[in-house]
Structure formats: C-alpha cells, structure tokens
Design goal:
Layout: H1 8-14, E1 20-23, E2 28-30, H2 31-46, E3 56-60, H3 65-76, E4 80-83, H4 90-100, E5 104-107, H5 112-122, E6 125-128, H6 129-132, E7 148-153, E8 163-167, H7 168-182, E9 189-192, H8 199-212, E10 215-218, H9 224-233, E11 238-241, H10 243-254, H11 258-269, E12 273-276, H12 283-293, E13 298-303, E14 307-311, E15 325-326, E16 331-335, E17 349-354, E18 361-362, H13 366-371, E19 373-374, E20 377-387, E21 390-396, E22 401-404, E23 407-410, H14 411-419, E24 424-434, E25 438-447, H15 455-468, E26 475-476
Parallel strand pairs: 1-10, 3-4, 3-5, 5-6, 9-10, 9-11, 11-12, 12-13, 25-26
Antiparallel strand pairs: 1-2, 7-8, 8-18, 13-14, 14-15, 16-17, 17-20, 19-20, 20-21, 22-23, 24-25
Helix pairs in contact: 2-3, 7-8, 9-10, 9-11, 10-12
Length: 500
Amino acid sequence: MPGNLTLPIIKRAQAQQQRPALIDAQSEYSYAQLLGAAQLIAASLLGDRRDLQEARIAFMVPPGFDYVAAQWGIWLAGGIAVPLCISHPLPEVEYVTEDSGAEIIIAHPVFQEKLQGLAERKRIHFVLTTEALQAEPVELPDISEDRRAMILYTSGTTSRPKGVVNTHRNITSQITTLIEAWGWMAEDRILHVLPLHHTHGIINALLCPLWAGAVCEMLPQFDAGVVWERFMRGNITVFMAVPTVYIKLIEFWENAAPEEQKKMSQACAKMRLMVSGSAALPVSVFEKWKAISGHALLERYGMTEIGMAISNPLHGERRPGYIGFPLPRVQIRLMDESGSEVKDEGAPGEIQVKGPNVFLEYWRRPEATQEAFVEDWFRSGDVAVVENGYYRILGRSSVDIIKTGGYKVSALEIEEILRGHPCIKECAVVGVEDAEWGERVCAAITLQNNAVLDLEELRRWAKKKMAVYKIPSRLAAVEELPRNAMGKVTKPEVKVLFQE
C-alpha cells in the first residue's frame, strides 16, 4: 500500500483488511476496499501537491461506502473534512463552504447539479467521487494526530452556525471513550440511519464500529418500515437514533397486526444495545420502547464541541429522564452563576467539560473560542442537576431555562409533565417575554388522535402535577397546533391560558 498511513483510524482498518466493513444499498465492502478507495480519493485531491496542509475540503456524499472513502481520503491527503448536509437548502450549504474557506468540493454525482454551479460561482475546485476514484495512487503525507481533522457546524440556535474544529487526537479520544464505555466489539453490526454531518452519526454510529472492526450497515434514509424489516431479518446488534426515530418506530409497531408486533419485539430482544441521543428522551418514549423491545434505551449527553461526555451505564441501571455519569477520561463539573462549583445534590449548575475529547477552536472565531472556556473548562451552556449520583439535564440556559416571577423553570421538565396527559401527544414549552413576570411559560401542544382537550381540566391537572414536582404553577397552556387538509402543522399559535 503506498503512502505513510499513520492515522489511528487508518491503522485500525489496516489490521482487519479482509473483514467486512460496510454495507450500503449497492454492495458489501471490506476494510481493504475502503482503504483502497480512500487512497485514490486522497491522490485525486492532492494533484501535484505533496500535502494539503489542512486545506478545507467540503464534501456531499450520501450515506454509504463513498461517504467513508471521501472522509478518509481527505484525511489521508492532509485536509480538513467539512461534511455538508445532503438535505440543507443551497443557501445553508453556501454558508458552510464560505465560512470554512473550502478549497475543494467533492460530491457524489447525485449532487452534481446542486453543487457544481455553486463551486463555479465561488471559484472552488469541484471534483466528483466517480472521477476521484479513477486517480493513480501516489505517496501520501505523514499526518500528525495534532492536526486539524474535521469542521462540524453547530445548529445555530442562538446565532449563525459556528465551525467546530476537531483534531485527529480529539476524534480518537471520542471514539476510544465510547469503545470502552459501550463495549464495541468486532462481532457487532450496527444499522445506521443518522445524518452524517453531526457527531452522533459520524463518531458514535460510524467511526466507532469501524474502529472496532465491526460492520456498519447504512440505509440511505430513515424509514420506519424498512428499519423494522431489517431488525426482523436478524444479526443487527446495535442501533442508535434520536427520540423522534423511536417515536416513529413505536407508531409503526402500534399500527401492526398482533402477530407482526410479536415478531418485531422478538427481533429487538436479540440486540445487545440501543442508544438514544441528540435531544432529551421523553420518559413516556423510554417506557413505551422498553415495553415493546425489552430494551432500556441508553441515553447519553454530548455536543458538537465535546463529542460524548456523560452516559448511562452499559451494565447497570439506566434511569429514564437521566443522562448518567461522566464517561472515561472526561471531567465534568457544575458551576453556578457566581462562578462557584455546585456541591449540593439537586442544585442546578452549568455543565463544564474538560478532557482530550474537547474541541480545539471555533473556526476563525477566536473571541467566541475564548468566551467558550473558563481556563481549560468548556462552558456547555446546558444546565443540569445531580440526583442520587445521576446527572439530569434541565435545558440550555439560553432557551430552556425560563425565568418567571423570580423562579427558574425548566422547559424540559414541564414538557415531560404535559406529555403525561392522556390527550396530549407532543408539546413544546417556551418562555414568552412579559412585562409583569419577566417571562411567561407557554406550551404548544398536539393532541392524540380523536382526543378532545378540556382546558379547565388541563388547568387543574397541570397545577396538581407541578405541585408534586415542586414546579411553580405559573403555566400558560395553548391550543392544539392547527393543521391543514394534508395533516401538516400550519401557523402554530401560542395562547396564554393558565397564568396565575
């Protein structure tokens, strides 16, 4: 094999070349095939250069073999991988390519029409994966683990998305932590249904199995029926998803015939691990999925900037509504608004994180990088409490912690309570600016099929529940989100109904 293939993820692949690595809609591929394709893409990207020297390479490739080959090819050539979301509209894609300063865009042919015009307008070199895979092998550069490896963009909930820079060492730390914590083995086979421009899909569900020598089976997109059919064919051992995916799988199961439900549940029982992340897992979903599958979903906590930091245990109690304990080699502390560390059980504080998993910087944003750290501790912006040794998230300090009448109320806690009402299918709680209370707590809800909501009954029910949970009852409920003839939510309105 030509080149100096020194990166840990590549060395791991070299050690298991004849094993199956990946399955997509086209075929099954070995680690040797994956390495060979990655080297050809690296050669194409290098051209006459010996080393890309951290040039940013944006790439848009659907889930599958070509995606991994492109990612690894960028790394082997010494570039920084900037994955583009395949579902984002062109203005968002343009923002990422401009902000990252991408020198090359590499794309699968299915995205040629979408991206080639952008590349020409911005004078960015454009390469198709099909062309890159025809390159002649060349000597590859020696890549240090301290080099920048990848830029992932934040969701941009409070500002424009920022580019989060991870080094190869950061990525290795994030992978090896989860290999240890979640017991990854070469015998594992994961069904991958997650987006490939975020940590969850890239690190947790793709690079972890490839590091372990396991098989990653990738679907082009999530489809509840396809996922259940694949579960029932057997040999899947690991599944990772967001709460919305589990909700869709539950709905599909509930609509199936009893005999089919039995087969679906039996298929889940044969798997060793099911994980939920990227958003808070409602307790009701945890309980329904456990009844259906026999699995207590492993909920964990992470961010683009830190990978995974806190997790429920692989072996031991997984508490619904809690995210567990700090992962190996990850340091966690809770800090109050005065800058003092929270020591008391049940007292809220901002999660701050330190460890080799923590990102290097926000791309070309030195001030934002400086503001994100207190000494070596990354300030997550998420507020949590520790109860009986387990961490529980209250929400983001910027949007989920509502300050009303002198109280700090967790929007996530109120959402969890409202979901327990028999008429309510889903809800979202927000703070609405108010001159008297500072913020009023408001909730937008959707109803269960054929449910009729009695607002006075909901008022009494909610006040009683929140008294039990010691949450101030200054709650504003809302009407159901209106829907059009196609069943799509239209123009959701928030109406204050419950203010004391």
